[in-house]
């Protein structure tokens, strides 16, 4: 019974409050309440404002961090795509160079390989390539640059990769020849008159016309034989070069083919300077390798040439 009376009283008060609010009777009380509570509300708002700003800053900072992370991911993707494009373009250029070498050597069988490691520190000069015995390679095979110049030979080999000894390695020795520039010589006795020699008498036979007289001919000198040895400081040193060999800076150094370990005519490099030793049977020369041995990416293995040391006895 008391519960019924309590609900009836609450209902009556709520109904009376609604009626009085509609009639405007409670407006003075509401205004007084708002006026009294305003300072308290402002104080609470001032106290809560920094806390609210902190939470808003944390939220905004989190959004900025997410945005920065997204931008970094996009930038990384673009850089990866650019790197792949540049690498593809470089690879195409390398393969085009290799194709040009193959076309210039139609009788040779060449196989392109990628350089996967370098060991040019200390006392060795080696590179590793991604082809091995499973690809038909063997020790001693000649390795060329993508432009066709000699860079070394296969020294160690496994199933799927091989180590190439560069021509700058101290254990490298290549039988070489120097192709010097052409020399113009005049046949002996032609156009030379020694003092005291009587002049020839006139004869009835007409003298040959100048056009019919022998002309000087350009006679290339014989290639000078030597051995191109690897050296840590100077790269490639041309040793056992005869002292009477007429060589000079810029002359081409090629493989001679002697010994059977290298085919004839592969470009090794050019002579930088010659060191003559008085009264010595030989002179030496420093050779600049034709290939950039410090920046090799693609090389060619000459698999159609079988070095002599690999043939059966």
Give a written overview of the molecule.
The strands form 3 sheets. A 6-stranded antiparallel β-barrel has the order 1-2-5-4-3-14. It is 32% helix and 27% strand. It has helices at residues 2-23, 27-104; strands at 110-119, 126-129, 142-145, 150-157, 162-166, 173-179, 183-185, 217-219, 224-231, 235-242, 252-255, 267-275, 282-289, 298-302. With 313 residues, the protein is an alpha+beta fold. The model is unreliable at 183-205 (pLDDT under 50). The radius of gyration is 46 Å and the shape is rod-shaped. It folds into 2 domains: 1-104, no CATH class; 110-182 and 217-313, Rod shape-determining protein MreC, domain 2 (Thrombin, subunit H, Beta Barrel). The N and C termini lie far apart (126 Å). The chain contains 2 helices and 14 strands.
Question: What is the annotated CATH architecture of the largest domain?
Answer: Beta Barrel
Give the strand tally. 14
Distance between the termini: 126 Å
Sheet with most strands: strand arrangement: 1-2-5-4-3-14
CATH topology of the largest domain: Thrombin, subunit H
Backbone shape: rod-shaped
Overall SS class: alpha+beta
What count of helical segments does DSSP give?
2
Question: Strands, helices and their partners?
Answer:
Blueprint (H helix, E strand, L loop, with lengths): L1 H22 L3 H78 L5 E10 L6 E4 L12 E4 L4 E8 L4 E5 L6 E7 L3 E3 L31 E3 L4 E8 L3 E8 L9 E4 L11 E9 L6 E8 L8 E5 L11
Antiparallel strand pairs: 1-2, 1-14, 2-5, 3-4, 3-14, 4-5, 6-9, 6-11, 7-8, 9-10, 10-13, 11-12, 12-13
